[in-house]
Amino acid sequence: MTEQREAGRSFDQRELRDIMGVFPSGIVVVTADADDPVGMTCQSFLSLSLDPPYIAFAPSITSVSYPRIREHGSFCCNVLAAGQHDLSSNFARRADDKWAGVDWTPSPGGNPVLSGVLGWIDCRLEAEYTIGDHHLVVGRVLDFHSERQAREALLYHRGGYALSAGSPSANSGDS
């Protein structure tokens, strides 16, 4: 007999991760504080509202980078392009040298904008909620920029990097 949980059936976390993994998501690197840069990779990112403009992202409660971002009070979400796997992997690490060899310029709000990204969104931290093993962070959009080049976004799908549907390789049926 399956043990019932408070809000539904019991389940294995690996099974839940597998089903959630079939939903592809874009990848951003959230950065803050151009004077003492901090950054972290995040795939749990979304547009929350256009009027007024808000975004949200969900760092783990065990993140060592997010408390520094919270303390700074503002942040920049850098939307990674296909081919920026190294940046994603670099900022996903728990290391002090994440910024070694990384090209960036400060945003108008004073947060690092990584070179070569598809776009960036500068935000003020508006609200934070702790839900389960993550924080839900809401940011008020203050400024943004989008590269209008015909490049694809870096996606995360089924536990790894993936091509978007607009990619010639993704449409060829070779997968």
> What distance separates the N and C termini?
39 Å
CATH topology: Pnp Oxidase, Chain A
| Secondary-structure element series | EEHEEEEEHEHEEEEEEH
Q: So what's the oligomer here?
A: single chain
The overall number of domains is 1
CATH architecture: Roll
**Can you give the mean pLDDT?**
85
Biggest sheet overview: 7 strands, antiparallel
**Percent of residues in beta strands?**
35-45%
Overall, the morphology is globular
Count all strands and give the number: 14
| Poorly predicted residue ranges | 168-175
Helix proportion of residues, in percent? 10-25%
Rg calc:
17 Å
What strand line-up does the widest sheet have? 5-4-8-11-12-7-6
CATH class: Mainly Beta
By DSSP (H or I, 4+ residues per run), the number of helices equals 4
Instruction: Return the structural class.
Output: alpha+beta
Looking at this structure, what is the CATH superfamily?
Electron Transport, Fmn-binding Protein, Chain A
Protein name: Monooxygenase
GO molecular function: FMN binding; monooxygenase activity; riboflavin reductase (NADPH) activity
Organism: Mycolicibacterium confluentis
Family: Belongs to the non-flavoprotein flavin reductase family.
